[in-house]
Amino acid sequence: MAPHLIACDTFQKAWIEACEYLLAVGGESNNLFVSIRDPLHEDPVLGSQVESFCRSLKLRTPKQVAYTIFPANLSRNRSEGSLTLAYNRENGFFARIKKRYPRRTRWGTYFRRLTNYASEGGSFNQLGSIINAINARPKWYQAAYSMIIQRPGSENTRTIGGPCLNYLALQGHRTDGHRQLGLLAVYRNHDFVERAYGNYLGLGQLLGFICRETGCEVGELACLSSHAYVQNARALRAFLAGLPK
To answer: Closest Cα to residue 151, out of 106, 193, 212, 99?
Structure first.
């Protein structure tokens, strides 16, 4: 199947267009590429409507999904102390949640993989390392800094189950003399009813945080969904039809 591109100013518009496209082609598609020019812009009214829609279907809400990528408390904790301390607070909170709900948190969260990725040499903070590298280099590089989510082995042969986000690339640009960072996310399997809206929200918040920490402008958020699909198609179609045009 040929790739399909959706380019919008905001993640909410992009999500709506992506859902409409998936409904039109039978509920699933390969290689859906979404480009969001202003990933931090959000209409709070529409956000509340989507939250209510997810609750009505007993699904995870967008805020809950976004939290697995970027904990909302991180920015507050950052203002109270060092960046390392902020990371440790969030990972400590997750450790307590995992102990309480082991079956629901088997592989962790995306944020934990970004800041506490387990390897043979011990855990590694990918996110902190990239922020520190950008800030330490006197020269600006128009390059991509990569962050890996999956671990080789059983995780890259799964057909269902997390983690569905494979890879993040932080992309450096220079626009009109200003340093700018964009973010590319690659998903192997992407649920557009329960996950994608919250994923876009969390990825935008993550990008905004990185840009604040490095003094860069926020660039484009791009997301490639290798396999995109919708569940609860009838409910989704009715929800979209009720939104103002």
So the answer is: 106
Q: What are phi and psi of 193, to 5 degrees?
A: -95, -50
The CA-CA-CA angle for residues 85, 197, 211, to 5°, reads 40
Q: Render pLDDT for 121-161 as a digit per residue (tens, 0 to 9).
A: 778 889 989 999 999 998 888 878 999 998 776 666 666 66
Residue of 79, 159, 88, 179 lying closest to 127 (CA atoms): 88
What are the extents of the domains in the chain?
Answer: 51-219
Question: Tokens in use for 117?
Answer: 């990725």
Contacts of 19 (CB under 8 A, 6+ apart): 192, 193, 230, 236, 240
Residue 175 — φ and ψ, nearest 5°? -125, 120
Place of tokens 């991180």: 74
- How many whole angstroms separate alpha carbon 145 and alpha carbon 219? 14
Instruction: Say if residue 76's pLDDT is above 90.
Output: no
Element (DSSP H or E) covering residue 190 = strand 190-191
For residue 168, the Cα-to-chain-centroid distance in whole angstroms is 9
Are 4 and 21 a contacting pair, CB within 8 Å? yes
Please report how many Cα atoms fall inside a 13 Å half-sphere around the Cα of residue 164, on the Cβ side.
Answer: 22
